[in-house]
Amino acid sequence: MMLIPCPYCGPRNQIEFTYGGDATLRRPAPDAPESAWVDYVYLRDNPCGPHDELWYHGAGCRSWFKVRRDTRTHQILESATIDPPQPADP
Amino acid sequence: MKRYSIFSLVGNALSGHQNWPLAWRNPSPKKQYDVVIIGGGGHGLATAYYLAKEHGLRNVAVLEKGWLGGGNTGRNTTIVRSNYHLDPNAHFYDLSLKLWERLSQALNFNVMYSARGVLNLVHTPAEIDAAMRRGNAMRLNGIDAQFLSREEIATRIPNLDCSPNARFPIVGGLLQPRGGTVRHDAVAWGYARAADSLGVDIIQRCEVTGIRIERKAVSGVQTTLGDIGTSKIGIAVAGHSSQVAAMAGVKLPIESHVLQAMVSEPVKPVLDTVVTSGAVHFYISQSDKGELVMGGDLDFYNSYAQRGNLPMIENVVSGCLALFPSFGRLRLMRTWGGIMDMTMDGSPIIGKLPVSGLYMTGGWCYGGFKATPASGYVHAWTIARDEPHPLNAAFTLERFGEGRTIDEKGAGPYPWAH
Question: Domain residues of chain A, as ranges?
């Protein structure tokens, strides 16, 4: 059982959360070339080790936040809020 | 290869089973091969077998970092079927089912194919429509499909709760009679023995640590047993395609997730059909040893751990008890997890990668086992001829950027949703 540390509510049972995928993706600028959009929508680093990912605390504060978790062991290394909003890549 | 037969069995029984030959050799790697296959599971061994058998390429090595069939080949729930809606999937998986039907004879190894039928239960009028549509699509593609009423299902599977006041009332089901199960370990062993007898070198405990590229073409692999030269590499590594492709600088549209499965203690025969329910996210069959083999959804987070967490086990077991209340007295004997390479459209990638001489079969989501023979067949074709077989021409890496995704479920680019 994973105990996920919500930055707003503290550690809670994983069944309160929904997974949101890779947190390192950045939406390209609207006029970015098509290849940048293909990379953003489809390609993933899929690391075997520490992974920055999004989680949603649906059965709690209903906030999205970031978790760094080791995909080899499921050990959670840290969690953080996602504000201030991330600037889009230039 | 010494053929297995009733005569070899009787002869060896008379000598106390002390003189059976080894099923395959244990060679040291040579310096150079025509083709190197990375991954000694079902897909890699099948690729090597068909390279030798169909294309006359016998200077082939299969490199396996652990032992044969120790990854997902030994972790799946042994179900085979071809009940797909979209044309590329339907034709590809039906080639696989046709190969399964005669694989024991082709390999001279009993893979215990059992055409016990795969039944997808439906619980709502909307699900009836979807099942009818998929069944009709299958029949148009020449695949067997049959819609069963609630009464027919109740007669066929007496311990399934078909009462109208069940937690998830059953209103019908789509049956594929040719679907069923295959003994998973036997697939790896059968292909290994047959490939070895055709001259393929199967090298275990040999991990690939790098892929050598010269002038945009592969020239060899670095391994824990030294460098091996080759001009063609086939990747068949189940849950680690991203890592191996990255050795050649290729980034894939894949996330790796953990899928769990579990078995009950063994009991006498109680269930002679594979039963699944999309609404309950549950499937079950009974193994020849008597265990009830069951599984459900992914754990829904990236993982390479080969083990999952308890909430999904509880989910699967509660689905089981909703459909089969009489199984509530059984004890769960064992649970395990395997790593699924989930693609962005839920369909596999079989074909050429953007480095000359590099090929892959992977991204199997949770449908890899049933695809083993066809995957090996078309992967070998692609490697031997440097162009795809018609049945894997749609499963390219480029389809994502070209807007040609094969999204059976219509779930979009969320790999954990397929």
Answer: 3-26+34-81
